[in-house]
Amino acid sequence: MANELMNTMLNRLKTDFSVSDIIERKPALTTLKVARENAERLIRELRDREGFTHLSFITCIDYIEDGIFTLVYMLHNYDSNDTLGVEVDISRDNAEMTSIHTLWAQAWTYQRELREMFGINFPGSPRLEEDFCLEGWDDIPPMRREFDTKKYSSDQFGHREGRHSEQPREHMKVTLYPTRGGDE
Amino acid sequence: MSTTTGHSADLDFPQPEPIDMASGKYVKIWQGPQHPGITGNMSLELVLDGDTIIDCKTHVGYLHRGFEKLMEHRTFIQNFTVVCRIAVPEPAFNEYLYAAALENLSGIEAPERAQWIRTLNLEMMRLASFMMWIGGMSAAFGLYTVPNWTTAYRDYVLDLFEEMTGGRIYHMYMVPGGVRAGLPAGFAKRIREVMDGADKLLDQVERVMFNNTVFKARTKGLGIITPDMIDPYGIVGPNARGCEITRDLRKDEPYLVYDQLDFDVVSGSDSDAYERSYLRLQETRQSIDLIRQCLDGMPGDGPFQADMPNMLHWQIPPGQTYVKAECTRGEYGYFMVTDGSEFVRRVHVRGPSYTHAIAVMERLAVGTNIADIAGLMVSLHTYPPEIER
Known about the structure:
The complex is a heterodimer. Chain A is of the alpha+beta class. Chain A has a single domain, classed as 2-Layer Sandwich (Beta Polymerase, domain 2). Chain A has helices spanning 2-17, 36-49, 107-118, 149-157, 168-176; strands at 20-26, 29-34, 54-63, 68-77, 82-91. Chain A has a five-stranded mixed sheet, with helices on one face. Chain A is elongated, with a radius of gyration of 26 Å. Chain B is of the alpha+beta class. Chain B has helices spanning 67-71, 76-83, 91-106, 112-140, 145-165, 187-210, 213-219, 227-233, 238-241, 249-252, 273-297, 353-365, 373-379, 385-388, and strands spanning 26-31, 43-49, 52-59, 319-327, 330-338, 344-350. Chain B has a three-stranded antiparallel sheet with strand order 1-2-3. In chain B, strands 4-5-6 form a three-stranded antiparallel sheet. In chain B, helix 4 packs antiparallel against helix 5 (145-165) and helix 6 packs antiparallel against helix 11 (273-297). The longest helix of chain B has 29 residues, at 112-140. The model of chain B is unreliable at 1-8 (pLDDT under 50). At the A-B interface, helix 2, strand 3, strand 4 and helix 3 of A face helix 1, helix 8, strand 4, strand 5 and strand 6 of B.
């Protein structure tokens, strides 16, 4: 029953919002793709008319090879217990997306994090410019695929020698028999 | 389609009036990141008018270790030892969800006995975590007897974990495909002994903490979450159940063997700090009951590990999944994307504190007395590490 309702809804979304790539990832988890310009309208529709009132999270997948960021909005319907992932592809250069901070109170925190970690801009989102986790960060956004954590760490902190250590066997000889120059 | 507790109107985010700090009427103080009344390393930037808070901003980042990035460069089995570090008081949920996500993506199913053992482990985890939380909550209001009892008793639960998994805090027990080992001989008897003691302890806690006039006076009416806040703020778990919302993933979308266990979703009527605390006490008792049910229902023998591919060269087909479980604070989830290689493409860890500690906290703090801010924070049960990952 729930599946029928879900299918009816998905068919309607196909016509009204030209959603594509509808994939059932596992029972009660479906993902779909929508164009950037329709995304905010679709999410609003899902929230207000289709009962997807819970926003689990917003996240981003970096497909550097295709030059796109895929934003994922995970929505949940508490009545039918269906979860729906709305995917939106945006360009990696000039990454920008419509803000949905007026739909959910926690959305702006996610948007603030995405701006810091991926460099995606959400015009109009509150406190977007404030640092989230990384105070005074001046490198490229660290969750982007091209950010090399190891290189960053060696450039930033330099090479540090390990502690001075002795070969145990030689060291014991010298310590125990100093007069014999380490000779047993 | 159905209409739920809908929010039709958009949320309003008015630009706050700038606070004239130079006027000398207000004081700005920082609660945390190092503070006895704070849960983990997180700080609140508070502006006070007298002793009333007029503005609150949450600052995180003190525990950021870049887990999600780290995991993109490690093999699946290497990540298994990383995930439990994400939430110190409740590592088992990370282990379970990481394993469940990989099993889901690679089409492996854990054997029945492993599923029972996992359920037992998760409920023991909930019990241990609640015990620590009860201590934090009562200490935030100056009752220092209860934390001594519950934190000490939690150690008996940690002893059980040590016997079961070899580790007290980080167990690394729920490996992809099952669990690492079966239960030791005579373990069920020892769990039952500890549970009997826990029952008695919780009765004492109820008498000393929940019937205490000072505790009641200070927590009743503190930080009220109204039903109309639940969906717009994404509130989950006991914080939501406090106001008559009976949502529990263990019941609504049963995972592991929760559909074979007998329990009711506990809910309250008015989600203030007292109600939420009392609800958590009841959930602690519920965990004890579920642990006993797990021991009764668990198959005595059978495999505890599915056949797995070579862990050193494990490749998972391209896919995407989101798995979730009900931790002590609500919906805890792992979103995972694989691309067919030996590495995960993207992991996103979803923790309930993300909204409880920031959006909800910043709203509830305004108008609260400075003396109650630590108690308010603990009553929301926030864990900063799951915000930062």
